[in-house]
Design brief:
The structure holds two protein chains of two kinds.
Chain A: E1 4-5, H1 11-14, E2 27-34, E3 37-44, E4 50-51, E5 55-59, E6 65-69, H2 78-90, E7 97-101, H3 106-109, H4 125-152, E8 160-162, E9 165-168, E10 173-176, H5 177-185, E11 233-238, E12 246-251, H6 253-257, E13 261-267, E14 270-275, H7 278-286, E15 289-293, H8 302-312, E16 318-323, H9 326-332, E17 335-343, E18 355-361, E19 364-369, H10 374-385, E20 392-396, H11 412-423, E21 430-433, H12 436-441, E22 449-457, E23 463-472, H13 489-492, E24 504-511, H14 526-543, H15 548-555, H16 560-573, E25 584-592, E26 595-605, E27 611-621, H17 628-648, E28 653-654, E29 657-658, E30 676-681, H18 699-711, H19 720-723
Chain B: E1 2-7, E2 10-15, H1 22-29, E3 48-51, E4 54-57, E5 70-72, H2 80-91, H3 101-114, H4 120-127, H5 137-152
Parallel strand pairs in B: 1-5
Antiparallel strand pairs in B: 1-2, 3-4, 3-5
Chain lengths: 724, 153
């Protein structure tokens, strides 16, 4: 292991650190992650700035415990959750714990659940860090205890560590972590450490407050938009109005006349106007005159795509899963239901518009961004600048939301800011800011999908067969992550693994080729498969003349965790109890990213003719509940995010052009849309799984099922606003 | 052209196009970064400040229209209501990504200064213009009620 100068502690970096104590002598614990088995090492930390680059925790003489987060915090509570795991095994006092973002270094901070690259996604942050951070905390604890034993001349097994204090009651000795940090750094790293039994957890499972709550309530939290470097310019970019169009020629004379505009440069992704601040840059951008070459652009509209996709649902697709003989079973069924579902393109529209800042330094470049996949962003900047990735240092700041948008296979935003810097001659630092319109019209949408579902029942209403066909753009194609037969697993997740017992079952898929850039959107394939499968289950239940909960229960007998959340949500919601006139209930249950969620909703019809959701009872099983208060927040968040999209949102393409542009046409969930949400966390001793996404999939189908119960009307095309 | 404005009790003179929205003067000129850009068309409330004590969207307010009015940003909050709101926000862990929360806090403080004990309908009307894409609304509502209780003593 080599010690390296760590750019995290350059003066510029320090300004953006969260509560970072002065770097001093102390103990650093980290891991080298090989084949999923953590190998622990420690490094003695020298003077300020001399830190091992692969540390997960730093204990300083000022008694602060700094947990290094390899995952971005963009709302999901990762900083708090990761720190909780480590601090628990360390037996730290929560009040001494700080969190700081890790630098870009996949060898050290890779995500084992994302193939080893450094990144956050798929609700994996807690799951892939669970054992890693427990070991890191337990190892630091063992070394602190060993240092104390040596200092006090007592056997190490007589040393106690509790709530940030190391003690030997017999000798009346006490020391803080800070007191022992330097001595602990000199202790040998234990080969093995024992981890706590869950019954010994002191922080995990309790209500630990968010580490970032205060600074995010006072305006002090720093986002990329808040990066102001000396002599920095702001860039606003004009991108092609059609996906696949390119600049033929442009006239920037009017743009250059705008007061405060400094330069106009052409890059592979568009024309950037650089100004002394956002407003001049945007005024300049709006004054550009560009002639576009639209010969290779995608010009199909949403309606055209729906019709083409609908035709494809009549043809056999790529096989994802087959059991039994579905066609034969359908032919022999007493009753067949055959329906089509339509799902629009969706934008993510995170609250902080996309942005990134860059500055050249003596050794390469520094980037500030809400970087969701640091390894890709590093590569994208390196490509744009023609340097090696290790010349790119990334400061990962708080992201103002993402919902998937900050993770693209091409590192689009970082690539853009690096390209602008290069085109501008690479001297002054640059911050690129997307406008909200750039964001909503800029693509990387949740793809448009059409599903066809066929189900058959026998004379007595017993379900015999389930056949699902999905048509849409393959998100994973760009990453080369298709199965051998071409199936994109992200298109069929939540469908091919349907938990309900059908002897005859099939899911197949058509990948389509459309020139619209697409992306994962909070819960990815589950955004559409949960809707079609759970509303179709409701149709089958009604066709069988059975209660939707009872019907599911019967077909879930081999899936105890699905059943567990379903029963819990049904019980807590008073499923079956009478409701006031004009209200109805609906249910949906769905597993995604290893977590199981059931939601029961109560709806009425509002004066716009849309569902008004009054109450959501949500039951979640995500293994060990690291932070129940955060799980509640994430369920509320996933429900609110999914509800607004289901009620209002679609990006409609006409002639290839997105028709929505901002929050006046792409409506966000608002306070008055938000139902009461009651979250019940099912007790579990399974390893923890994610909560950032799994709250989203069940809400839309639960509302659609309640809507059917209320009105007799089946909604099979989202959003409700158009269907209703 | 130089224009003077009063922000958080201090006079500032800036030399920008008078049509520049106050938001960008606060951010790019005065480096008061608590006030955020979210939509630019007064649809999301991330840019909310108090203008003579009244919650106002700054992304569509040209600098030249501010005149002598007193601008208070989240950095300049100094009232019992603000203290109660920020305490309740922290105790209930309201923020998630946190980007909209400056605007939410400014609207909530404005509400409590006018209506010390708001009911849900008053909260709806004061807060519906503030978008939170993380949908932290359940806790926003709860924190406003809690702040009101704190202020009651």
């Amino acid at each position: 292991m080599t010690m390296q100068q760590d750019e995290r502690f350059s003066p510029s970096r320090r300004r953006f650190l969260q509560g970072a104590g002065a770097a001093g002598v102390g103990l650093v614990i980290g891991f080298h992650w090989t084949l999923g088995v953590p190998r622990v090492f420690a490094a003695e930390t020298g003077k300020a700035g001399q830190w091992a680059p692969n540390a997960f925790v730093r204990i300083a003489p000022d008694n602060t415990v700094t947990v290094i987060s390899k995952h971005i915090e963009f709302g999901q509570g990762t900083y708090t959750g990761l720190a909780t795991i480590l601090a628990d095994e360390l037996d730290a006092d929560w009040r001494q714990v700080r969190v700081e973002s890790a630098p870009a270094n996949a060898a050290v901070y890779g995500n084992a659940l994302l193939g080893g690259i450094q990144g956050t996604g798929g609700s994996t942050a807690i799951a892939n860090s669970w054992q890693q951070l427990r070991h890191a905390g337990a190892t630091a604890r063992a070394m602190l205890a060993a240092a104390a034993a040596k200092r006090w001349g007592v056997p190490v097994n007589e040393v106690q560590v509790s709530v940030g204090v190391v003690s030997h009651p017999g000798k009346g000795k006490r020391a803080t972590f800070g007191d022992l940090a330097e001595a602990a750094a000199g202790q040998p790293v234990p080969d093995k450490v024992s981890l706590k039994d869950p019954s010994q957890f002191s922080l995990i499972g309790t209500r630990v407050g968010r580490v970032d709550a205060r600074e995010k309530s006072t305006g002090e939290a720093r986002f990329t938009l808040d990066v102001y470097l000396p002599d920095m310019l702001t860039a606003v970019m004009l991108r092609p109005p059609l996906f696949g169009a390119a600049v033929k020629s442009f006239d920037d004379s009017a743009a250059r006349k705008v007061k405060g505009v400094v330069d106009v440069v052409q890059t592979p992704r568009g024309i950037a106007v650089l100004g002394e601040g956002f407003w001049p840059a945007k005024q300049g951008r709006d004054a550009l005159k560009v002639e576009w070459d639209e010969s290779k652009a995608e010009k199909r509209g949403s309606e055209e795509l729906y019709e083409q996709y609908s035709k494809l649902t009549r043809q056999v697709g790529l096989e994802a899963e087959t059991r039994g003989d579905p066609e034969k079973a359908l032919a022999g069924a007493a009753r067949v239901i055959d329906v089509e579902y339509r799902f629009p393109y969706l934008a993510h529209a995170p609250m902080e518009p996309l942005d990134a800042a860059i500055r050249p330094n003596d050794d390469g470049y520094e980037i500030w961004a809400g970087s969701q996949i640091q390894t890709i962003d590093q590569g994208a900047a390196a490509k744009a600048l023609g340097v090696k990735p290790e010349k790119i240092a990334i400061h990962t700041l708080f992201g103002g939301g993402s919902f998937g948008r900050r993770a693209t296979p091409i590192g689009d935003v970082v690539f853009e800011v690096a390209s602008i810097l290069k085109a501008a001659g690479g001297k002054r630092p640059i911050k690129l800011v997307w406008t909200r319109e750039d964001d909503v019209q800029g693509g990387r949408y949740r793809p448009l999908y059409v599903h066809r579902l066929r189900g058959g029942l026998d004379q007595g209403g017993k379900p015999l067969v389930w056949h699902q066909r999905i048509v849409g753009q393959p998100i994973m194609k760009e990453l080369g992550n298709l199965r051998k037969n071409g199936v994109d697993p992200s298109s069929v997740e939540g469908a091919e693994d349907l938990p309900y017992a059908f002897d005859n079952f099939a899911v197949d898929l058509h990948n389509t080729d459309v020139g619209i850039p697409v992306l994962w959107w909070r819960s990815v394939g589950h955004t559409h498969t949960a809707f079609s499968t759970e509303t179709f289950m409701d149709e089958l239940a009604h066709a069988a003349g059975e209660d939707p909960v009872a019907f599911r229960r019967r077909l879930l007998k081999d899936h105890p965790r699905h059943l567990g959340v379903l029963e819990r949500a049904a019980k807590e919601s008073g499923w079956g109890d009478p409701l006031p006139k004009g209200r109805a209930r609906g249910v949906a249950v769905h597993k995604s990213f290893g977590s199981y969620v059931a939601e029961v909703v109560e709806v009425s019809k509002d004066d716009r003719g849309l569902p008004k959701v009054h109450r959501v009872v949500c039951a979640v099983d995500c293994g060990v509940a690291v932070n129940p208060h955060n799980i509640e927040a994430q369920m509320q968040s996933g429900i609110g995010f999914g509800l607004g999209a289901a009620l209002y949102d679609e990006i409609v393409l006409e002639g290839g052009r997105p028709q929505q542009s901002n929050f006046d046409t792409y409506l966000p969930t608002r306070l008055t849309d938000m139902p009461e949400v009651e979250v019940h966390v099912v007790r579990s001793s399974e390893a923890p799984t994610g909560v950032g996404e799994p709250g989203t999939p069940p809400i839309a189908p639960a509302v659609a099922n309640a809507w059917f119960a209320l009105t007799g009307e089946r909604v099979r095309q989202l959003p409700f606003k158009r269907a209703g | 052209m130089s224009i003077s404005i009063k922000v958080n009790g201090r006079e500032h003179t800036v030399d920008v196009d008078p049509s520049t929205p106050l938001l960008w003067v606060l951010r790019d000129e005065l480096k008061l970064t608590g006030t955020k850009y979210g939509c630019g068309i007064a649809q999301c409330g991330a840019c909310t400040v108090h203008l003579d004590g009244k919650p106002t969207r700054t992304c569509v307010l040209p600098l030249q229209s501010v005149g002598g009015r007193e601008v208070t940003t989240i950095e300049g909050l100094d009232s019992q209501e603000a203290e109660a709101v920020q305490r309740a926000w922290t105790e209930l862990d309201v923020p998630q990504c946190g980007y909209c929360q400056s605007g939410q806090v400014m609207s909530a403080v404005g509400l409590l200064q006018k209506t010390p004990k708001p009911d849900d309908a008053a909260i709806d009307s004061a807060m519906n213009g503030n978008v939170c894409r993380c949908a932290s609304y359940v806790r926003i509502r709860g924190a406003i009620h809690q702040a009101a209780r704190m202020l009651e003593g």
